[in-house]
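Task: fold both queries, return tokens.
Query 1:
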Amino acid sequence: MNIDHLVQILYLVASGLLIFGLKRLGSPKTAPQGNMLGGLGMLFAILAVCIQEANSDESNWVLVGVGIVVGSVIGIIAAQKVQMTGMPQMVALFNGLGGGASAFVAASEFKYDGTDTSAMTMVPLFLSMMIGALTFTGSLIAFGKLQGIVTSKPVSYPLQKTINLVLFLSTVSAGLLMVNDPSATHWFIVLTALSLVLGVLAVIPIGGADMPVVISLLNSYSGIAASATGFVLRNDALIIAGSLVGASGIILTQIMCKAMNRSLANVLFGGFGSDDSGGAAGPAGPQGNYKSAGPEEVAMILDTASLVIIVPGYGMAVAQAQHQVRELDKALQERGAEVLYAIHPVAGRMPGHMNVLLAEADVPYEQLQEMDVINPSFPRADVAIVLGANDVTNPAARTDKASPIYGMPILDVDKARTVMVLKRSMNPGFAGIENELFFKENTLMVFGDAKDSVSKINSALKEL
């Protein structure tokens, strides 16, 4: 067996492991195994690259070693240090790094030596640079919005859509001119610059409420860019891995849009969503009065409940209250209550955000139920506990045709006998819309940090 055959076998094994790893990610029970298979697949791919480099006349082991060490250190630190609440930001940042890597490869491969200027080479190079560069800057903006560095509100300006359209067409035109004449390096520079600007202007008008969709879409972009880079490098494993990421990201994006009852075009160009800025609660809102309750009153109601449905949202993530919620879950079950968790597809800041947090707190997956499954259970629930889930519980989505979220599928928490909303204040969520739920007759507002509030409720329950 020669070196080329060994390398191809390693790439084949790596591709197979990535495919099976992705398949195992389809269930929380097998997801850890899927992660291990995916990591092992990447190890085989890196090994193949090292073998190729060792047999290359232009090998540079210093750069290879530096890349491996730096990448490993970043990965280890991220895995150990990044909090679960920072996971959306990390995903956005890693999406950007993936796109940036593709753009750097395209830049390094763009050279006019008169040997290979075919469309089969130049078109993938054009796509790798354009998609990779816009994914890089777009992901940095998404990271900034999630981190609070950039405002979560949609940033709009006159002729915004027209300018973005002209910019997109100009970027494509620069790429086509580069493909037509690879010796004209200035077109490649123009393509790069326009792509970077396009990424910024494409994401900056999108509000915080749509960040889960944006993250999944940018994830898809990074995969498409990687696949195009695979064609540039003639690397089968990279083509396969990029295609998997690109396809799965698109599918997830469509699922997220369906969960919000909105089209992808509306997400990208609608300018929907605003920041939850916080503030003090008032005695009344524009829709009427609300009722508040303390931990002792909440504990007394929970003490006699038979079915309790917990609705986690971003407020739980910010407060890092998942472990206290799990303690409350156990305490209720010890009293004979059935406890379920209602998971909305777009709750939190990224797809699966609530599932990850609850898994960290060792909540059994069997207790987690998706929106379509859990909604019929709300009318028989004694208590629904809402932990910072705002827009996905707003009854206006069902009743108010003038509301921006009208038609969006929501969790039917208002149909429970008693609804307890744990929230810092009466301020609206990312959509910037007053939540009708807060003013319902069966709703009790429990103000304060979710972690602190749940801890006090747990203590009150123990004293009963």
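Query 1 returned. Query 2:
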Amino acid sequence: MRGLVGRTLEPGEALLLQPCKQVHTFGMAYPIDVLFCARDGEVLHVLRRMKPRRVGRVVWRAGFAIELNAGAAEQVQVGDRVAIGPTI
């Protein structure tokens, strides 16, 4: 339920939220990018540079969301696919 509230990401890191259909940035001190994805990894919606103290829309088909540092999802488009695997 907390996501990145009170936390920071290192460059190249992301936070996977599963299940997740909506995010907010209350309590955040910096903007973030958010990818909402179907269970098969298809990107359904992208929030770019979501400012603090905001509520994103509900993405009903989303199986998970990925929170990233602002600008990290600059090249990601709806319809792209993401793969989640073990960290090294």
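Both queries returned. Flag for query 2: The chain has a mean pLDDT of 92.
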